Amino acid sequence: MQEIVGEGLARRLVEWGVDTVFGLPGDGINGLMEGFRRQRERLRFVLVHHEEAAAFMATGYAKATGRIGVCVATSGPGAIHLLNGLYDAKLDHVPVLAITGMQETSVLGSHYQQEVHTALLFQDVAEAYNLMVTNPLQVPGVVDIAIRHALARRSVAHLTFPNDVQVAAVGEDPYRHVSPGVPPASSAVVSQPPVAPAQVDLARAAEVLNAGKRVAMLVGVGARHARDEVLAVAEALASPIVKTLPGKLVVPDDHPLTTGGLGLLGTKPSEELMEECDTLLMVGTSFPYGKYLPAPGQAKVVQIDIDASLIGLRLPVEAAVTADAKLALQQLLPMLQARSDRSFLTKYQRARDAWRADMIALQDPGRDPIAPQYLISCIDAAATSDAILTCDSGTIATWAARHWTIRGGREFYLSGNLATMAPGLPYAIAMQHAFPGRQVIAFVGDGGFAMLMAEFLTAVRHELPIKVVINNNNSYGQILWEQIVLGYPEYAVRHRQPEADFGAWARACGGYGVKVTDPKAVPDAIRGALAHPGPALVDCDVNPDEPPMPGKVRYEQAKHFTEAFLRGQPHKVATLATVARDKINELRS
Ligand code: FAD
């Protein structure tokens, strides 16, 4: 059988080591689908229910494996559906190749059905590489170039194939040659050595750090492969480690050197630490919230990042080190002077212990309606020591940030910089494909789950034993609280009754599903779902009036909160009761 371009593409992906492609067929990619069919023994095609989920899966796959993620969609609407998931990859700096279809070349420009010029549409998101393939001779060369760009730039590459090109014979040249150029001769090879630091940069960094009296570290997901080095440098500097939310997995939450997260979802000691430090070492982070960083002029900043263009985004930097985090920290360590004064660290270790006690107090099993903090604490207690937790945007991110404990080989993923709803479930599916032996749990809200809930069916159909736990507050809880804190009464953030029973949906899909409304039933429901050999879902009704409080409540926030109540905040009694009870629980601890 003559090899067509679709197969040439699929074969080249295999040569790059790609083993899984996430997508949905359509009449704009029949030639590509035939190519995937012919390579089906070596390339798994994960058939999804919505292209947005396919893009999230490719992104999640790339986040968890460090390898390129690949997603496929048809022309027009299918390609458009990919966009949100692709922006997640772009903003969180992970390599993804998106493959789409186009109308055949002969009809382009004729207002043809589904004539959406995807290369134009993807111009912004596909910052690494973006091309419409118009000659079969370009394959496989441009596939190599696209993948190398995505890997080198840690971002999105996009190739779109017109229908007629997809089914043309590989090596067929429809045109007469008029230039000395020849089609790209290429191979499935890339070289990506870790970027080594310049000695002069390290010397400056060591000088600044050695001069600091109150040193803090802010560590992001770019340091995920450098846990030992982060801990060793923190130990040498007697510096507490603050983690970004995506950087939660870098250092175990129960390690004595960390004060936990920073920001709205962070901890009070981390926030106070940033207010007090005189020197800040930032490693592998683009933490966006300047309000939570030291005030300008307060601290001298050393920043290590693999991308020179991302250094100095939020604070003026005294010493910039463009390098891989692991290499830079390894080489920095012997240049640091040992410290005898550990009082700054000890102070924040005490504050951290007090904060943890506050958090444990909020995990109160006696509360009815169920406290979301209790729900996540039950997951935390029952999950394995190498479990992966995926999460969505919303109040669930707060509960996961504070009550999901990274220890051992546990991991945590969410859409950090795009902060989109709905990736939790598709991420879990992709990560379970990547790590079949591990426990993968999607901790999602009812809002995010409802957006892409058909993908639970994907999990069942692919026999993936993912676990889904829905923190069901029947509302857009994060926004509800944001409205109140701004001083506005809540509006259009709560769904009308009836509440959905997503447990019934899971069972209808052929999976395991339960609905939980009684706090006493939570531990068994979680344990039962985790023990179930196949896909399982627990839909848990939680208190919709539970506030995701900042680590440190500021005067302005308290003032606006009060104003919203005076202006006619509905659900006043329930909300106030919850806030008051949280405070009492904190004080009780
Ligand atoms: P990124 O922004 O992805 O930065 C990683 C950095 O590491 C990049 O600069 C990259 O170039 C660099 N890097 C990559 N590889 C290497 C390497 N090998 N060596 C060195 N450098 C490398 N985040 C918080 O921290 N606190 C919050 O309170 C918070 N609230 C949120 C609430 C919600 C609902 C959601 C959805 C998100 C929230 N986030 C929060 C996430 C936040 O928006 C940012 O995504 C996050 O702070 C950025 O984390 P990061 O710096 O670790 O990751």
Describe this structure in words.
With 589 residues, this protein is α/β, with parallel strands linked by helices. Helix content is 40%, strand content 15%. The chain has helices at residues 5-15, 30-38, 51-65, 77-91, 118-121, 141-153, 163-167, 199-211, 227-237, 268-276, 325-332, 343-362, 372-382, 395-403, 424-434, 446-451, 454-461, 477-485, 502-508, 522-531, 555-566, 572-588; strands at residues 20-23, 44-47, 69-73, 96-102, 129-132, 156-162, 215-219, 241-243, 258-261, 279-283, 300-305, 319-322, 388-391, 411-413, 440-445, 467-472, 512-516, 536-541. The strands form three sheets. A six-stranded parallel sheet has the order 2-1-3-4-6-5, with helices on both faces. β17 (512-516), α20 and β18 (536-541) form a beta-alpha-beta unit. α1 (5-15) packs across α2 (30-38). It is globular. Bound molecules: flavin-adenine dinucleotide.
Keywords:
binds flavin-adenine dinucleotide, single chain
Task: Give a short overview.
The protein has 589 residues and is an alpha/beta fold.
By DSSP (H or I, 4+ residues per run), the number of helices equals 22
Give the low-pLDDT segments: none
Cα-atom Rg, whole angstroms? 25 Å
- Biggest sheet record: 6 strands, parallel
Helix content: 25-40%
Distance between the termini: 72 Å
Strand content: 5-15%
pLDDT averaged over residues: 94
- Ligands bound, unique: flavin-adenine dinucleotide
Side by side, the strands of the main sheet go 2-1-3-4-6-5
Secondary structure: number of strands: 18
Per the principal axes of the C-alpha atoms, what is the gross shape?
Answer: globular
